Amino acid sequence: MIRNTFGKKRYFSISKSAEAAGKKPDEIPRKIACPSCSSLIWETELVKNYRVCPKCTYHFPVGAWERLNLLVDPNSFAELDSDLYSCNFLDFPGYEEKLVAGEEKSGLREAIITGYASIAGYKVVLGIMEPSFMMASMGSVVGEKVSRAVEHAIKNRFPLIMCTASGGARMQEGMVGLMQMAKTSAVLSRFHRNSLLYISIFTHPTTGGVLASFASLADIIIAEPGALVGFTGPRVISQTIGQKLPENFQRSEFLLEHGMVDLVVQRSQLHSTIASLLRLHQGGNNG
After folding, report:
1. SS3 of 251, please?
2. Domain containing residue 141
3. In this structure, is residue 39 part of a structural domain?
4. pTM of structure
5. CB within 10 Å: which end of the chain, N or C, has fewer?
6. The CATH number of the domain where 274 resides is what?
7. In this model, does residue 6 exceed pLDDT 80?
8. What pLDDT, in 10s, does the model give residues 181-237?
């Protein structure tokens, strides 16, 4: 019998995620090298430009709280299920330490935040994954938070928005982690039977069990430019089939061309694009 995986006490404490997200930047200005074009960019300029390189439009990684602030209306977010967090119920060696490290690095208690918010005045339920927490891998708590978010959307008849960035299922939880694929897919089936709108946003990277479950089951799939999207990485695929893969294989633009995603949208345009989609779906009713 599997013990309850939620809420087991971990004997450490960190600052609340909202407080961690609001830390003041360094007093001394600094330049950051773009991984794509090697340009040196002042960090203040990068922040003003949605953390997108002004020279080559490379999209730098963004934490969950910062992405939330870029996406939703100011002061509109109310978090759900912030008291849920993982425990090492299989006694997997080193898992407890990884959970502690993930919490300290991200300022979050788990690899996803969920809650209510509004976008251009339209009420939504949304979830945003945090890649700095164990590469936003999906364990039992991530699956539970996603499922509860979907259920809140069904109950209130709100559109659902999921912003994914993940390395897949969390191996430290074994079969329980893998079963979150079926769990989240099942609750989304009920969501779709209620004729509600689900928008999925792929960010870099969206892979593994997350892509193979709730991330891909949306009515409309949007991807950020240059995001790696696939069940497994291109190197593994190339080695398995013994062939050279096409240029930009598994990148957003390649997937758009081949019909796997509906839109590739710059980060600066994401809020207005989703607002337009909500307006089309909801009409003038944004109350």
Report:
1. strand
2. 61-282
3. yes
4. 0.87
5. N
6. 3.90.226.10
7. no
8. 999 999 999 999 999 999 999 999 999 999 999 999 999 999 999 999 999 878 888
